[in-house]
Design goal:
This protein is α/β, with parallel strands linked by helices and about 850 residues long. Among the domains are: about 350 residues, Glycoside hydrolase, family 3, N-terminal domain (TIM Barrel), CATH 3.20.20; about 130 residues, Immunoglobulin-like, CATH 2.60.40.10. The chain is built from 20 helices and 29 strands. The strands form eight sheets. It has a six-stranded mixed β-sheet. The chain has a six-stranded mixed β-sheet with strand order 14-19-18-17-15-16, sandwiched between helices. Strand 28 and strand 29 form a beta hairpin. Helix 1 packs across helix 12 and helix 4 packs antiparallel against helix 13. It is globular, with a radius of gyration of 27 Å. It starts with a strand and ends with a strand. The structure holds 1-deoxynojirimycin. The site of 1-deoxynojirimycin has 8 residues, from strand 6.
Length: about 850
């Protein structure tokens, strides 16, 4: 059953909680939201905005257009570049992947994936990872780094790019976004939160890819998301990114409620720029733009990589935007706003001072090459091979070690160092025969897995394999080391395993971006099982080895049921995607230098069906529809609601020590019901349009002498092409009158009173074991309302405790933590009902609970 609530022009779809039926996709409709809100320097943005405005004020129309438009795929050094402003000596801005380091970089680091950052549940490490990555991007002269990721969030456990992001929980992802954005931008690079929004699977995100797999689709998949789910689940971590002052947001390929992510006025103008008061720029994902004026009016600010399709030589923006302004279909104030948003992000991160020139190139790792790679022009020094790694290997190793999640341990870990013979099994223990960068964009899995595939990758400067690191350690200790890396050499495996004191068995599961198919996995995983018959490998080892320790390198949850209860499987570590220091960080944990303190950022189920939601992996219709009928109930919320026992629940993870919780106290800091809806009007749009002479924007006379092939330019061909008139536009798109501030808006991240702390929770945690270690104190909220998840994560804190030590851990809950989105009021609202706070070490192991009063 679907309720359609019609409200002052807004259509909001809510799912009645007790009637879980299929909404008719035809109802998935995205309401228009115009005009596009202009940047106003709110929050911390005043100084940057003022400088940006002054800068943009002196620009000609074509110079402004140049800031908004990419120069075309492979036309410049980076995966995306905008045009230059030669008159002011203003260089091209460079946008470069990825969320875990510099894609195509040389002498740069391969950081652990976003998922591993989330696995640490450690805010400081998340920040430091962001800072270190930011330093590297800046060192290469990259203006905008294309990360972090909060879409996909993880609706589907098979989602190909879940590992690029953080967690299937919005709160944990929100913290990952916040800390990463802060870190990156503190280093002076503009962070790009992506993919906004609802980009939960790879298949059907783009028509071309879908067709390549034989599906006769005409438009991208539509993620059909109701208003409440949008606010409380998918938008939540983006709100945190905006609150952290993220400078850029990348809109996604697929449609949301049957309107493309990069032309969806409700998402861009409405939620992002009005409600969240986002002050930065919206850039398109690469070729995710499908219109010119319509996208601009809907809130798109930058076209990436600029051309309509890769290397087409034409653009929806570029000269067409100049034309649109001249013929009256696009108001100049919208172009000014785009340029001002771009320049505000630039000034906000202080890129006007000592920012290095881009000194890397995406299309070759050689020193010399074509700057205009596609057209093979401008040959010269393109890679200065600047070593930007600094001491980042330390944070990489520390974070990866602390990300390790100990799933099972019968006491065999940590290793004592006195085991006589260590054996390692599986291709995942060693190096791929092609070298760590041997598969383009890491599209292969035949050695140890340390990142997934696609654009979310970086080149490895080196990759320390588990075999190398463990061998080095074992040799120091005088242990014997044997290894069989062929996953199928069962007879050698059994023989070796029989003699070993401990059998470290390495297994993996990989996924990535949809343009690469690895072994039938078209980005998304085709199943949740281990690759290379990992289950059989483990069972073979365990058949002759009484001490089988399994290490899993994986992009997300995998099914463990075939062997998890096997008595010879004595310990299991989930290591995720650890990046370049893989083997070292693992050795730190195996030998006990680091006490594992990772916790699951998703649920590990017993069976695939237990997750409920399914990928849309076929389509008989021209426009695939994906109805998010489960609403808020993904991952642990679904398991709780349906009383399904997972194998390992969200938040779970063991330690080499034990902890005790006591003295739970709750202190009220402010009135939880004291939320104040924002009021008033935004400033009037006082833009004056000067009369522009089309003749000023023609291709320059000497153009043929410097033209670059397939490059996107901002000029028009002929004055007679400019046909002024009245063009159709969405209602209100040209409106320059003052607009009301949305009740839920008023400052970057949304209404400031949402973020006022209202309760302080304190609890005493004691290390009751025999080893120093870190505990992740998790705070869950239960509202008791039938249409809410049973519990939701609302806070966490990681704390280090020596043996016997006790510490008081204090965390705060703010109003947003306690409120719900009302589709009727179009605002956050307090709910009735007794709220209970549960504190413990996972989403199913609560040590203490108390009422919120
Ligand atoms: C497409 C991917 O979806 C996006 O994440 C990436 O930043 C761009 N390509 C540029 O490579």
């Amino acid at each position: 059953m679907v309720n359609i609530i019609l409200l002052a022009g807004l259509v909001a779809t809510t799912l009645a909680a007790d009637l879980p039926t299929q909404p008719s996709s035809a109802l998935a409709y995205s309401p228009p939201y115009y005009p596009s809100p202009r940047i106003d320097g709110g929050g911390d943005w005043k100084a940057a905005y003022q400088r940006a405005k002054a800068f943009v004020d002196q620009l000609t129309l074509t110079e402004k257009v140049n800031l908004t438009t990419g120069t075309g795929w492979q036309s410049d050094n980076c995966v995306g570049n905008v045009g230059t402003i030669p008159r002011l000596n203003f260089p091209s801005l460079c946008m470069q992947d990825s969320p875990l380091g510099i894609r195509f970089g040389t002498y740069s680091s391969a950081f652990p994936a976003g998922m591993n950052a989330a696995m640490t549940w450690d805010r400081e490490l998340m920040y430091l990872r962001g800072l270190a990555m930011g330093e590297e991007f800046k060192g290469k002269g990259v203006n905008m780094a294309l990360g972090p990721v909060a879409g996909p969030l993880g609706r589907h456990p098979e989602g190909g790019r879940n590992w690029e992001g953080f967690s299937a929980d919005p709160m944990l992802t929100g913290v990952g976004m916040f800390e990463t954005v802060k870190g990156m931008q503190d280093a002076g690079v503009i962070a790009t939160a992506k993919h906004y929004i609802g980009n939960e699977q790879e298949l059907f995100r783009q028509v071309g890819e879908g067709r390549q797999w034989g599906f006769n689709i005409t438009e991208s998949l539509s993620s059909n998301i109701d208003d409440r789910t949008m606010h409380e689940l998918y938008l939540w971590p983006f709100a945190d990114a905006v609150r952290a002052n993220v400078g850029a947001i990348m809109c996604s390929y697929q449609q949301v409620n049957n309107s493309y992510g990069c032309a969806n006025s409700k998402l861009l103008n409405g939620l992002l720029k009005d409600e969240l008061d986002f002050q930065g720029l919206v850039m398109s994902d690469w070729s995710a733009q499908h219109s010119g004026v319509a996208s601009a009016l809907a809130g798109l600010d930058m076209s990436m990589p600029g051309d309509v399709t890769f290397n087409s030589g034409d653009s929806y923006f570029g000269g067409n935007m100049t034309m649109a302004v001249l013929n009256g279909s696009l108001p100049i104030w919208r172009v000014d706003d785009m340029a001002t948003r771009i320049m505000s992000a630039y000034y906000f991160t202080h890129q006007d001072k000592n920012f290095p020139e881009t000194n890397m190139n995406s299309w070759t790792t050689d020193d010399y090459g074509y700057l205009r790679y596609y057209s093979k022009e401008h040959y010269g020094l393109v890679n200065k091979q600047v070593d930007v790694r600094g001491q980042h290997h330390k944070i990489i190793r520390e974070l990866s070690a602390k990300a390790n999640i100990l799933l099972k341990n019968s006491g065999v870990l940590p290793l004592t160092g006195k085991e006589k013979q260590i054996a390692l099994f599986g291709s995942d223990a060693g190096e791929t025969p092609y070298g760590p960068n041997g598969h383009p964009d890491r599209g292969g899995n035949d050695g140890t897995l340390a990142m997934g595939w696609g654009s979310g990758t970086a080149n490895f400067p080196y990759l320390v394999t588990p075999l190398e690191a463990i061998k080095a350690k074992a040799l120091q200790l005088g242990q014997v080391v044997q290894s069989v890396l062929d996953d199928y050499a069962y007879s050698q495996i059994k023989d070796t395993a029989r003699q070993a004191s401990v059998c470290l068995t390495f297994v993996s599961a990989d996924s990535g971006e949809g343009y690469i198919d690895v072994d039938g996995n078209r980005g998304d995983r085709k199943n949740l099982t281990l690759w290379h018959n990992g289950d059989d490998l483990i069972k073979t080892v365990a058949s002759t080895c009484k001490n089988t320790v399994v290490v899993i390198h994986s992009v997300g949850p995998v099914l463990l049921e075939e062997w998890i209860d096997h008595p010879n499987v004595t310990a299991v570590l989930f290591a995720g995607l650890p990046g370049q220091e893989s083997g070292n960080s693992l050795t730190d944990v195996l030998y006990g230098a680091v006490n594992p303190s990772g916790r699951l950022p998703f649920t590990i189920a017993k069976h695939r069906e237990d997750y409920g939601v399914k990928l849309t992996n076929s389509s008989t219709v021209a426009v695939p529809q994906q109805d998010f009928t489960e609403g808020l109930f993904i991952d642990y919320r679904h398991f709780d609601k349906n009383e399904i026992t997972p194998r390992y629940e969200f938040g779970y993870g063991l330690s080499y020590t034990t902890f005790k919780y006591s003295h739970l106290k709750i202190r009220r800091l402010a009135d939880p019901a004291g939320y104040k809806p924002a009021k008033g009007m935004q400033a009037k749009n006082d833009a004056v349009s000067k009369k522009l002479d089309p003749a000023d924007y023609l291709f320059p006379k000497d153009f043929s002498s410097w033209k670059v092939g397939n490059f996107i330019y901002p000029y028009i061909k002929s004055v007679s092409d400019v046909k002024q008139g009245s063009y159709p536009a969405p209602k209100g798109a040209y409106d320059t009158s003052a607009q009301p501030v949305p009740a839920a808006g008023g400052a970057p991240g949304g209404n400031p009173s949402l973020y006022e702390n209202v309760y302080e929770i304190s609890v005493v945690v004691t290390n009751t074991g025999k080893k120093a270690g870190e505990e992740v104190v998790q705070v869950y909220l239960e509202t008791g309302l039938a249409d809410d998840p049973k519990i939701v994560l609302r806070q966490f804190e990681k704390v280090m405790l020596r043996v016997g030590e006790s510490k008081t851990v204090k965390v705060k809950l703010n109003r947003r933590d306690l409120m719900r989105w009302s589709v009727v009021k179009q605002d956050w609202t307090c709910t009735e009902g007794k709220k209970v706070v549960h504190v413990g070490c996972s989403s199913r192991q609560f040590a203490l609970s108390a009422n919120l009063a």
